[in-house]
Automatic annotation (TrEMBL):
Gene this protein is translated from: pcm
Species of the source: Pontibacter toksunensis
Protein's UniProt keywords contain Methyltransferase: yes
Enzyme class, UniProt record, top EC level: transferase
Gene3D superfamilies for this protein: Vaccinia Virus protein VP39
Chief location category: cytoplasm
Protein name, per record: Protein-L-isoaspartate O-methyltransferase
Amino acid sequence: MVLPFSLLLLLLLLFFPVQEEVHKERREMMVKHTIEKRGISDRGVLNAMRTVRRHMFVPPELADRAYEDNPLPIGSGQTISQPYIVAYMTQVLRPTPRMKVLEIGTGFGYQAAVLAEIVREVYTIEIIPELGQSAAERLKKLGYDNVHVKVSDGYQGWPEQAPFDAIIVTAAAETIPPPLIEQLKEGGRMVIPVGSPSKTQILTLVEKKKGKTVTKSLLPVVFVPFTGGDQN
Ligand code: SAH
């Protein structure tokens, strides 16, 4: 049977809103069953997790799995973190609308989008050019005008934009890069997975208090390696 073009168009137009509805429901379930249930209570973070269309931040063939509580492969050997960890790390930063945040490890841009829903400006650095460029395009297309993407080694941070109210590192570093500590504001918070890439790492909170650095271990995590700086 050959459908007339107008009928095909109509079917397509009907199909997209239905798909969006399905994703929205899955997002609601994800927040309710895996994020709120496991103790995330920050209203801003929960709202952002409900709002960001995660299926747009995974490879198209994985869109159907975007709302599972798992990390997903995004190509170039990298992964996008599981939603609970994204929510947890975001909550640790205590984000507010006035904040300027630095992210190291843009990947597909999902974490940056979650932050962008809450804070004023997000500066994010990706070391793999193809990932950085496509994340910049994706974020722009989706209207995240307050996210600025740079392709470079995040070890050096983004000195021209420093200091930052908060810093989030989404790749596992053996040690905390000193330039990032320097670029953190007094009273600021940084969250970073610290440890050997071949093992479980410890998600670590770094706070700058009266010029001193105070660290606190939060929970064991598994992240892809931080590849720049002196980590090689
Ligand atoms: N935050 C991402 C997932 C990050 S996966 C998201 O929400 O989709 C970790 C990313 O860190 C990878 O894309 C990897 O290429 C990047 N990365 C590793 N070392 C880096 C470095 N030194 N500077 C910048 N990015 C780095």
